[in-house]
Amino acid sequence: MAVKKITAPFYEKLSLVLIGLIALGYLIIQAKEVLDPLMFGFLFAILLMPVSNFFEKRCRLPRSASSLLSILLLIGFIFGIGYLVGSQISNLTNDWPQLKSQVSDSVVNLQNWISDAFHINAAKQMTYVNNTTKKIIASGTSVLGTTFGAISSLMLFYAFMMIFTFFILFYRRLLFRFIVWVFDENNKSIVVDIVENIQSILRQYILGLLLEMGIVATVACTIFWIIGIKYAVLLGLIVGLFNIIPYLGIFSALLLSSIITFATGSVKEAVEVAVSVITIHAIDSNLLLPTIVGSKVRLNALITFLGIVFGEMIWGLSGMFLSIPTIAIFKIIFDRIESLKPWGFLMGGSYEYKESAEKDMKTE
């Protein structure tokens, strides 16, 4: 007697998928304190894996020592960039009197504009400002406590991130064997291919991002120096560092560089800096990004932007950083599983559509 196979209706499958996604999203949000540094540790471990292998195989160091030395090099690199930026910011404090004078003049001009536009005299404006200042001072204790808590949380986050990086580097072979072993033997070749491609593509993506950041910072520093901006190095570093944040970083860099230039220079220089930042971003988006980074992680702009938006909604700023590598991981998996290939195709760029069309033409 043949057994009739019962297939669930579409709306039932869709409901189960939506419930699963909602539950998964809730768990991801609740587990942010652990998953956030773990994801960054995973990315740093992939980046440092060749360095650790070099120390382990060429220098004959134990795996623990090679992993630790790799992390120390990473920390030294981060502290080097931080020291360079910090030294430039300390030089900026020397212009505090000029900054104060410039802000005072701007406040006077703003008061005059408000008085002319809204017919509110300067006395009423100052009364409102003084009342607001008193409220801010009254809540100073809570603000100080919040700031201290944020700094403590940030330091704890960095500590956990480095610990996770060390453990992933130290147990990398154990984790690789577990991932291969947990799946069926028939799928071993696919699993190995997915793991190797994730390592290769993410490493190339991170290195490409760092290379792009260095090029953008160098070009910005050079242009600002030619224009004659006082803090050309600081502004160039700001443009390069904020360029890591996809889409939204350009607005932050544009705002900060324009404000600093206006406070330490003239309106003309601030406009020149703003135009330069926009031009650098246009060249970077249309030339550097597709060539250096886009060739490593081939995602279309719509999926990338949606990923950044959802990443910010779930984990904030760190979610924006992690959105593209996470989507890239899913795309690698989808492209190698037959039933999920349409989703991988949806995440890809126009080049995949072109390749697919050429393949169909050859088949016909």
Beta strand count = 0
- Number of H/I helices: 15
* Overall pLDDT confidence: 77
Characterize the overall form: globular
**Percentage of residues assigned to helices:** over 70%
Pick out the low-confidence regions.
139-150
Largest sheet: none
Q: Strand pairing plus helix content: what structural class?
A: mainly alpha
Query: What order do the SSEs take from the amino end to the carboxyl end, as H and E?
Result: HHHHHHHHHHHHHHH
* Rounded radius of gyration (Å): 26 Å
Distance between the termini: 43 Å
- Beta-strand percentage? under 5%
Give a verbal description of the structure.
The protein has 364 residues and is mainly α. It is built from 15 helices and no strands. Helix 2 crosses helix 6, helix 3 runs antiparallel to helix 6 and helix 7 packs across helix 8. The two termini are 43 Å apart. About 3% of the residues have low confidence.
